[in-house]
């Protein structure tokens, strides 16, 4: 099976690509793609082409690149925006910056609608050409004309996901950073997790806020080496302790102190010991003090500082000192989840019909709706509109698909048949008071009326509903119905038999005459014309036969003011009649003839006016004959026969 769709590098394109591979050769800079409709049929690409068969649109390329899987494949991409269209696409062409057609291709037939037609889409066209050397083709384009396609965005996101081209964050610059839950790290390049912050906060929150120690509470103390002081706010130094120890050493036999008795203790500077028999040194005390002193002293948080906060589950509070609980966050999330997203532009509305109905908005229902095959009455058509929610909006419209076999035919309008394929349906009002308008396309089938606008109005029970059809430049009302005249023509034979019916003013030798033209365009006599001259100057007619037109010239009607001549009807003039009247009759000159024995008759055209009877011998009796003569137009004529 032969390939139906293909791309061909033209002869001119092959020459340029070959020249580009030569040393010092100029790269071929492909900048533009054109689309065409092939003149109404699918073309076959030809290397000898220098342009498309019938170009309908061209534009700078959106992208040209090398195929990642096939190194010698070059992919050129064109994006046709939604507002451009109104044409069929059957052929593509690639042009370089010098206007040379480099490659030509055919494609699957596709109609590109314009947004103004009621349906629009962005369409991407790609052409792939195979070259021996990709280096011979310039793969850069003007980025100011680039439109990001879905594939382009997906590729860039995938590339970005695999990329490590991200700077690390520092104390002086933003960037990416690694999280850490450690609480003893000195790193300035890691970011603390909430877990680490919580551990540090809990530790600091549990530390003692420094204050003076008393006998009833822990706190800061001043050291004293005195051994005779009765202060309860000072702490003994090791010197004082030693003096007391030395004194005591000579007294009571020392024993180790425990939590249950006094005694001698060993000092320890450890800050992580859990011993109950050692005593902390000032070093250990200082370490603990410094640690606690550096901790955060708890205070209420504000929008300007960290601190302690009280939790709240309220979802309607405007407090800036309370913190939301997970319950409040969940309530806010659940509420937000039911809201519409701005970046969806209404695409996430679950019930668009109900939504537009509730806000009283117009509804564009569909741009390619099928009504299924068969015939409809007007009542069935209205019920179908009702099932689609057409009467729930102040204005509702849809466009039917272009499938003749999948759309209904409305047969009872009384002013034409409506085949809904390709029609635009508009509904205004509600089911109790409606106006429906149907605009038909320029082509149809099944007897559908083309280029027409049908309007149906029904305002309730007391209203007489019905269809009407508007006339327009493509669907004209007969001239006689409008009381209009036709154009002025050059002569009385200039109005063709298949012209629109109308009254035309014709010029005959400088004088005008009126031509009334009737065209039914049906039957053996599809058209008839009447020509009327001014001042009752005559009426003429001629008629056409089938598709042959007017085969005979004008014929005139005879009237009381334009009677036919004798010659017109084949009658004699008075002179001609007089020349044929018999004005007189007479007997002509006598002729004598002897009679023979036997029977004897008169001579032709004669009568016997006398007989002579002698009787002596046979043949001696005379008979007298005279011709009968008629007097016509001054001349006597013998009659031929009596």
UniProtKB/TrEMBL annotation:
Any Pfam family: gp37_C
Keywords: Host-virus interaction
Residue ranges of every copy of the Phage tail fibre protein N-terminal domain listed in the record: 1-151
All residue ranges annotated as the Bacteriophage T7 Gp17 C-terminal domain in the record: 485-579
GO BP annotations, alphabetical order: symbiont entry into host cell; virion attachment to host cell
Taxonomic superkingdom: Bacteria
Localisation per UniProt entry: Virion
Sequence intervals crossing the membrane: none
Protein's recorded name: Bacteriophage tail protein
Phylogenetic placement of the source organism: Bacteria, Pseudomonadati, Pseudomonadota, Gammaproteobacteria, Enterobacterales
């Amino acid at each position: 099976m032969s390939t139906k769709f293909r791309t061909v590098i033209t002869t001119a394109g092959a020459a340029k690509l070959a020249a580009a591979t030569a040393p010092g050769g100029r790269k071929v800079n492909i900048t533009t793609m054109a689309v065409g409709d092939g003149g109404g049929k699918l073309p076959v690409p030809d290397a000898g082409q220098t342009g498309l068969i019938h170009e309908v649109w061209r534009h700078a390329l959106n992208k040209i690149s090398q195929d990642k899987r096939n190194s010698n494949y070059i992919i050129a991409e064109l994006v046709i925006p939604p507002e451009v269209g109104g044409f069929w696409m059957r052929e593509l062409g690639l042009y370089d910056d010098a206007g040379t057609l480099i490659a030509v291709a055919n494609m699957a037939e596709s109609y590109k609608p314009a947004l103004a037609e009621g349906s629009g889409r962005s369409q991407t066209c790609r052409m792939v050409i195979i070259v021996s050397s990709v280096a011979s083709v310039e793969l850069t384009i003007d980025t100011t004309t680039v439109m990001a396609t879905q594939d382009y965005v997906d590729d860039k996101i995938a590339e970005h996901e695999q990329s490590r081209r991200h700077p690390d964050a520092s104390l002086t610059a933003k960037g990416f950073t690694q999280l850490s839950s450690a609480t003893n790290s000195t790193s300035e390049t890691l970011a603390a997790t909430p877990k680490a912050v919580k551990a540090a906060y809990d530790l600091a929150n549990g530390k003692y806020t420094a204050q003076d120690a008393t006998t009833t509470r822990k706190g800061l103390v001043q050291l004293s080496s005195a051994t005779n002081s009765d202060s309860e706010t000072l702490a003994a130094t090791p010197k004082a302790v030693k003096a007391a120890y030395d004194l005591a050493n000579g007294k009571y036999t020392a024993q180790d102190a425990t939590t249950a008795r006094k005694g001698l203790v060993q000092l320890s500077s450890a800050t992580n010991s859990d011993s109950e028999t050692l005593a902390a040194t000032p070093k250990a005390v200082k370490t603990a003090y410094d640690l606690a002193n550096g901790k955060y002293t708890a205070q209420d948080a504000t929008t300007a500082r960290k601190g302690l906060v009280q939790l709240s589950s309220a979802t309607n509070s405007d407090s800036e000192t309370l913190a939301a609980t997970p319950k409040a966050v969940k309530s806010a999330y659940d509420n937000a989840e039911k809201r519409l997203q701005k970046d969806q532009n209404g695409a996430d509305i679950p019930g668009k019909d109900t939504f537009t109905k509730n806000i009283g908005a117009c509804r564009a229902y569909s741009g390619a709706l099928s009504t299924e095959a068969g015939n409809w009455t007007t009542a069935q058509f209205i019920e179908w509109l009702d099932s689609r929610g057409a009467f729930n909006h102040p204005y509702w419209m849809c466009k039917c698909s272009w499938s003749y076999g999948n759309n209904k035919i409305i047969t009872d309008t009384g002013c034409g048949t409506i085949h809904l394929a390709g029609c635009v349906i508009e509904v205004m009002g509600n089911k109790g008071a409606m106006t429906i308008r149907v605009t038909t396309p320029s082509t149809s089938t099944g007897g559908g009326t083309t280029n027409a606008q049908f309007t149906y109005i029904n305002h309730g029970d007391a209203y007489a509903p019905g269809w009407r059809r508007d006339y327009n430049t493509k669907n004209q009302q007969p001239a006689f119905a409008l009381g209009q005249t036709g154009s002025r023509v050059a002569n009385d034979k200039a109005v063709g038999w298949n012209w629109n019916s109308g009254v035309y003013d014709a010029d005959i030798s400088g004088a005008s005459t009126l031509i009334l033209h009737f065209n039914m365009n049906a039957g053996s006599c599809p058209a008839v014309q009447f020509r009327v001259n001014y001042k009752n100057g005559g009426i003429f007619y001629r008629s056409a036969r089938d598709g042959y037109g007017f085969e005979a010239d004008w014929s005139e009607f005879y009237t009381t003011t334009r009677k036919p001549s004798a010659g017109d009807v084949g009658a004699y003039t008075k002179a001609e009649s007089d020349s044929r009247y018999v004005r007189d009759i007479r007997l002509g000159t006598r002729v004598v003839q002897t009679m023979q024995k036997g029977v004897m008759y008169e001579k032709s055209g004669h009568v016997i006016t006398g007989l002579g009877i002698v009787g002596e011998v046979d043949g001696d009796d005379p008979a007298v004959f005279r011709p009968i003569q008629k007097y016509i137009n001054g001349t006597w004529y013998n009659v031929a026969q009596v």
